[in-house]
Amino acid sequence: MKALFEERYGTSPEDVKHYDTEKLRSEFLIEEILVKGMVKMLYTHNDRMLVGGAIPLASPLKLEAIDALKAEYFCQRRELGIINVGGSGSVVVDGQAYELQYKEALYVGQGVKQVEFMSKDATVPAKFYFNSAPAHCSYPTVQISRADANVLDLGSVETSNKRIVNQLIISKNVQTCQLQMGLTELKTGSVWNSMPPHTHARRMEVYFYFEVPENQSVCHFMGKPDETRHIWIKNEEAVISPSWSIHAGAGTSNYSFIWGMCGENMDYGDMDTILPNQLL
């Protein structure tokens, strides 16, 4: 397998107070998660979430266990969520192929031994973004189309955060151990996501930003509500959000992002909201 792997440790909010820009980015920003012809993975010790990407070209790419997992195969003790953000492609799970179009998802349960990524056309390759979390029982593999999503229409034009939240891998659609994933699309003229901001102490999150237009950017805000920080993010980059941190962003244009969560609480609406005028 052609694979790149990185490991990140957990951080204390007291330490983050003293980080400069370079240190903040090195701890929380995930650059180049999607690399042509490669599988790339990052293991964060925040709830042991694994974040990855795969762009298969002419040849399939296999998802195999990295040494850090100490496992015989990737899903031996893990579940997996995949969302395609590129051209048409397939994910082969223990010999069965699931074709994923743009913005379609696949949940793969614990115990699956073989996962393989394929592009339908190498000149317009699939881009498989994935999250993985520890799992202790096995649930069936489920494909989730855009039509299968639980859709929330949130925000308003007046507050520049009109957005559509597509809940894909979530308890209303798919039974999982702890992993949840979805996709939020900002409407034209809106730039703020996850407003008002919030924290959820019983689960962490990773945001993957995409559909960011050329020469545009997103400013991701993190940190404790009374000690916020920001990270400028380019197209197809991700950011780690510990459970103690807010997670919100504003772009220089509208954009989309994938949110992935894991932890002990599966209730999507369980969060501690902070009003914008309370942030420091």
Write a structural description:
Pfam families: KduI. This protein is mainly beta. It has a single domain, classed as Jelly Rolls. Helices cover 4% and strands 44% of the residues. The protein is built from two helices and 24 strands. Strands 1-3-4-11-6-9-12 form a seven-stranded mixed β-sheet, with no helix packed on it. Strand 19 and strand 20 form a beta hairpin. The longest helix has 8 residues.
Q: Can you identify the CATH class?
A: Mainly Beta
Strand content: 35-45%
From the alpha carbons, calculate the radius of gyration and give it in angstroms: 18 Å
Report the uncertain regions.
none
CATH architectural label? Sandwich
Our measurement of the CA-to-CA distance between the termini, rounded to an integer number of angstroms, reads: 46 Å
- Mean pLDDT level: 94
What's the short story on this structure?
Helix content is 4%, strand content 44%. The longest helix has 8 residues. InterPro entries: KduI (IPR007045), KduI/IolB_isomerase (IPR021120), KduI_N (IPR027449), RmlC-like_jellyroll (IPR014710), RmlC_Cupin_sf (IPR011051).
